[in-house]
Amino acid sequence: PQGPEEAKAFINAFLKRSMPKMKNEAIQDVLTRKAVVLEHYSKKKAKQKRKKPKGFTAKQRRELRLFEIEPEQQRYTLFLPLHELWKQYIRDLCHGLKPDAQPYMVQGKLLKADLHGAIVTVTKSRCPSYVGITGIILQEFKHVFKIITKDDKLKVVPKLHNVFSLEIDGFISYIYGSKFQLRASERSAKKFKLKGTIDL
What we know:
six-stranded antiparallel beta sheet; alpha+beta; elongated; SH3 type barrels
């Protein structure tokens, strides 16, 4: 245990270190008060602004050819596993596709589903050369589908003025491309309205 004099000397030394800008007389004056506020200089940390990562522009993506499928990869058999994955995805999305499932419920799910990997057929078209094209959807853009056919040909089919049929587990759904001109990411949030008759 320290004596009174030692305690006083310790406090004086401590206050002198803690308040280097104050003189001894001022420190003694502070000791007569009930509370002592020690000086503390905290370094303010500069807030670093987080930079958002910038993606590629559309022009840069075209120049880098990010979405182009190489000719040696344009083989139908290469994408059959993708179709099998898509079928399992749709079954999970529609809770099994049971025979007693309501057709409008399945149709509503398919309208918002990702179609990459689906096998579609062009059933109606204003351009007769498109009718009958069947294949796996490899890429979906706002205005076109890129489809790989069984004879390993990559077809670019516009959505406008075309009707596509899609079959899975006995359910056949028809897609009117003119009302389907959306990107896949935008389509998932869109509310589709029921219409009685739709023209090409």
